[in-house]
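agent> step 3/5: call structure_predict on target 'NADPH:quinone reductase-like Zn-dependent oxidoreductase' (Agromyces ramosus).
agent> reason: downstream docking stage needs a structural representation; sequence fetched in step 2, passing through unchanged.
tool.input:
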Amino acid sequence: MSVSDTTTSGSAIRGLTPTPTTNGPTTMRAIQFTRYGQPTVLETVELPRPEAGPGEALVRVAGTTFNPVDATLRAGFLAEVFPVDLPHVPGIDVSGTVIAVGEGVSLDLVGRDVVAFLPMTRPGASAEYAIVPAELIAAAPQSIPLADAAALASSGLTAWQAVVEHADVRAGQRVLVNGAGGGVGGIAVQLAAAAGATVIATASARSRDAVAARGAAQVIDYTATPVVDAVSEPVDVVVNLVRTSPEETATLVSLVKPGGVFVSTTTPGVAPAGTDVRAVSLFVRSDAAQLARLVQLVDSGDLRVDVSARYPLEELASVHRLGEAGELRGKVVLTPSRDSDGDRERNGDGGDPR
Ligand SMILES: NC(=O)c1ccc[n+]([C@@H]2O[C@H](COP(=O)([O-])OP(=O)(O)OC[C@H]3O[C@@H](n4cnc5c(N)ncnc54)[C@H](OP(=O)(O)O)[C@@H]3O)[C@@H](O)[C@H]2O)c1
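tool.output (status=ok):
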């Protein structure tokens, strides 16, 4: 059950007795998979539109994204770590407009443009509507299209937790971002450069200019030169965003100065015995306060979100194929189709699609 501004106007009311329904469509278009497998398991379906339960918001989705973990989840490789109920609607990033809230959530949220990183095991945002725990929500940036804001969520939080939280990058440090051409890397480079560090980044030709424009002082083409040969002196921090072999990982760790930090989102590093190098394996967590800080940086012009492509949601299977083939760079944003949005608008859903 949920409450919406169609039934109660305006004020912030907590713990309001829920009203039975919201206006608008009772179904929604979504992408789901009913079994693990190749991208072909992703199918477009019509599902009942969910209702916001206690502590939740119903969001009319403007954008979601592709992340490498989406493909791994779909293939079934993470079934034990992230057990999802099948059928499962994928998509861990969401931006959109709150159209209703459940019990205990402020009505002030209704009508707001928001962004969130969703729990991995819950139904995701590859749909016209998504349920979002209210505690995970941050206000969306005002300065970029609402759909693109989805690209900030899990990637921005991963970069923040690597660069700011775990590595605590400071002015004057040298930071190596391995895998800077991807969604996390583009933001990690900017956060490290903004902290005053000298950023060394690995990227291939297609991402070189974007990575340099985001603040990397040196860009190493990993397709031409092994990173270890190109890094002339030790670094304070390595942020590893590439699925490296144990040997490659050890080589990257060896580039870290005494007292420095190796943070990996992929292959774990092992700190050399007898040193004070730290090796951190990062598992990103949803954090609305950190996301709000990232949003502020976007709106102050201090952080750019590198959206490399936008696709209709119905092309999610193709996007998964491209992602698995290594043919994507930056962030890819997917949007529910406008035709269907228009139909639903006329059905009285309200909201303001950008
Ligand atoms: N542990 C966690 O909580 C967590 C959270 C988020 C992400 N991750 C993982 O972290 C990794 C990065 O995530 P992402 O979203 O940024 O991925 P992504 O957007 O898919 O990264 C794609 C980029 O990887 C770059 N790349 C591929 N092979 C490379 C290599 N050998 N050396 C340097 N760069 C290479 C490519 O750069 P070019 O365009 O320059 O070729 C490509 O643009 C993924 O493995 C993801 O699963 C983990």
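agent> step 4/5: record observation. The pocket of NAP is lined by residues 67-69, 155, 158, 178-179, 181-185, 202-204, 206-207, 222, 241-243, 265-266, 282-284, 329 (CB under 6 Å).
agent> proceeding.
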